[in-house]
């Protein structure tokens, strides 16, 4: 999901496929465990595919019939952005730089609380299928298409890398055949995602999450036992400066401080858990809004446990290699491979455990890739096909959705091959995911929190945010290539590549630390990657508001009040009643026309909501929030 790893330029992020750095091989038991992971994942998908074969609807395929419970949705939310790159990257980050990264956990509170109480209620009450339907309800169809295309480009590039990178790392360390693992994982994932739909993806995520926990736990238990226990691990890490204190320097150009992690991380979390289609789709598959909110709450402790386990593996690995130093071959490897070397070293002689960790590693990839396939099929179907061909039958739409999902699976394999040919540019490709998440977050916030924002402002703001994101991101890459890298202190920075937990938006290149502070544009390029989402989303909002005001705001346009979250009235409601009575804004009004029929028109295709649902929606439209709040805030 959101774990990052630092990668020094002294070693490439991943070696070439022809590398000869192989230290260990699998036993037959390890292969059996790995094959079992694939077989069980495929079996779960096929079970849901053949259960009710011939009676599947598009709603069942894309939204699991909107009947999922809190527990499976919560674990699926966790697994979606907990990729194999994170499982490799977080321990490497702790091993090299210390526990400062752990303070990212402080961002999880607001990063999950805000989606639970702002984004989920708005999306759920609009009965959406695609998050980008919101953009049409709030703005117009052009904004919806812009958001959809941006998301598709983001995920297509990312999912190929998520499949290729761990396969290549595994090949380098264990000799596991590179393209056999790429093809096997890609095809297995595409089959169960295309045939089983979202329900199959969610339940395989549950299984794969448990495998990830077991794999990490096995490494912690065995590794700490071999070095004398967790107490000794903590003592050695403290002696060598790997237990970091709170760095309160407010400088946004420092790679990791408390503020960049705890507050910059909030925006990163919002781009993942607030507006990303893969997560929104899971919220909307819940049987009730309350279940969706509870599933978001449940992610918080799970994320904390996952982060702590990654940190512990990093500390145990550091202690182990203090007592049993790495070989020359290992020290020359990319830092993200350290964990695999450590696992093969510490678990050797224990048949099955190396296979369990590799199963854990590829569970992370499967969960991320399957979520990408399903969410891409959903937005392609709902945002790009059905609006133009609404007359097609339910059976036709269901078949086409399966074909689209499988097609994205094949495209993923193609992207994995392209990644293998990119060489050093692979690092730049990783950063693209992070460059896009912030502007998309800004686009949704612009529409949801600012009633005066209009379609021209939304489009210009999104374009400005993307330009700014790519300018800083690519500028950071180029400036880093021509600079020397200083030695890496425990809390220092080097030319780094944060790897996604998912993540996700965190996969952007981090600025490098040089002997002298950069100035001018180079200073801008050294902005901490943890602030990228905040910076880029703010750019979208500011530019979008300016353009909206210059083009007349929402005058003459209809505004659906259900697409607005009344931020200011909610904040004013926290004041004492006597103070509220003195506020002049309570009597303000606005002449903006509102169109409460927009939603009814949207659901007229009957794709997911029957007449009973429409009646319930009509009843709910007469209770709850009144448009008054929206109008008051607009006038302010």
Automatic annotation (TrEMBL):
Pfam families: SSF. Residues 612-621 have a biased composition (Basic and acidic residues). The keyword Glycoprotein applies. The chain crosses the membrane at residues 31-50, 70-90, 102-124, 145-166, 178-198, 210-233, 253-275, 296-321, 356-379, 400-419, 425-450, 457-478, 529-552. InterPro entries: Na/Glc_symporter_sf, Na/solute_symporter, Na/solute_symporter_CS, Sodium:Solute_Symporter_SSF. Residues 623-636 have a biased composition (Polar residues). It catalyses: biotin(out) + 2 Na(+)(out) = biotin(in) + 2 Na(+)(in); (R)-pantothenate(out) + 2 Na(+)(out) = (R)-pantothenate(in) + 2 Na(+)(in); (R)-lipoate(out) + 2 Na(+)(out) = (R)-lipoate(in) + 2 Na(+)(in); iodide(out) + 2 Na(+)(out) = iodide(in) + 2 Na(+)(in). Sodium-dependent multivitamin transporter that mediates the electrogenic transport of pantothenate, biotin, lipoate and iodide. Functions as a Na(+)-coupled substrate symporter where the stoichiometry of Na(+):substrate is 2:1, creating an electrochemical Na(+) gradient used as driving force for substrate uptake. Required for biotin and pantothenate uptake in the intestine across the brush border membrane. Plays a role in the maintenance of intestinal mucosa integrity, by providing the gut mucosa with biotin. Interacts with PDZD11. This is Sodium-dependent multivitamin transporter. It comes from Trichechus manatus latirostris. The gene is SLC5A6.
